[in-house]
Fold:
Amino acid sequence: MFSREEIVRAVFPDGETTSSVDTYVHYVRRKSTPDMIETVRSRGYRAGSPS
Structure:
């Protein structure tokens, strides 16, 4: 599991906001399967198993 802050530091080193993570997760879900990335409420995201 990764928190939004961890994802921002790893993927957007130029200081994007955590809301950018939500946007890109939405893009990934739209291009793949919705269950590929699982939202862990109040924590962050977890990689799931694509169907």
About this structure: The two ends are 19 Å apart (CA to CA).
